[in-house]
Amino acid sequence: MLKVRRFGPVTQYLMGVLHVGQVYYWCACYQFGDALIDAGAPLCAAELLAAVEGAGLARVAVTHHHEDHIGANALLRRRLGLEVLAPAAALKPLAQGFALRPYQEMVWGWPELHAAQALGPELTTNHGPLEVLATPGHCPDHVVFLHHESGLAFVGDAFFSTTPKTARIDEDFAQGLESLRLLRDRRPKTMFLGLGQVVENATEALGQCIDHVERLAGEIERLADQGLDDGQIVEALFGRESSLRQLTDGHMSYRYFVAAFTRRRAAEKGAGPA
Ligand SMILES: [Zn+2]
């Protein structure tokens, strides 16, 4: 299923795969001038191709290598001749592949392996250049695209909500917090998210998110100082594990959010004076 929505100069392609008549997970990509930012999930690639044919695209640039952001890259290049750009650290997983869990395979499908070109500091579009800002945390290769003149920010999975507390097994939310601060300091007006939400008052929302994560990080540190392990900290802070843990076969949980901060604390203590 694919829906097209317009937000001023931005066209959103919102996609999801139907499972028993229901879309469980949406993903979005965005057209800004002749550039497409992100390329949806592999199972949505043919639908996306049909939607963007004739839309005047010259290139597709992705925020990171995850399967729900790169799905149509190879098809768009083959059929429409688009240039495919990705963060330098994403080139290897795009060309050689990466592991998917059964739930990811079911919801998004396997991406076609493909070569891409490394993004530079700016993404060229016929509506002016976008800054390519490194925002590691969700994954090491993550970037955000910013159009400073209009205050538009295409943030991929660098921001999900103002109150995050779940993380992937490979996510470093302590690093993600630093990326959120970098992004907030650019003072964006509108954020376009990888899941499809469009956030107005973006700088304010980023500030709320940063306050929330800093508060949780402080609590985690305090509980770790008392000798609690990650599981006990989850219990003390949230009372239970996230339902996503079971739905994603252990791929996402509160515990991985907590672990990013206890890992950093342990590393800082290890590096400090004895
Ligand atoms: Zn992602």
UniProtKB/TrEMBL annotation:
Which InterPro entries does the record cross-reference, listed alphabetically?
Answer: Metallo-B-lactamas, RibonucZ/Hydroxyglut_hydro, Sec-metab_biosynth-thioest
Q: Which residues form a coiled coil?
A: none
Cross-referenced SMART domains, in alphabetical order?
Answer: Lactamase_B
Metallo-beta-lactamase domain ranges (all copies): 26-195
**In which domain of life is the source organism classified?**
Bacteria
This protein is called what?
A: Metallo-beta-lactamase family protein
Please name the source species: Desulfarculus baarsii (strain ATCC 33931 / DSM 2075 / LMG 7858 / VKM B-1802 / 2st14)
Phylogenetic placement of the source organism: Bacteria, Pseudomonadati, Thermodesulfobacteriota, Desulfarculia, Desulfarculales
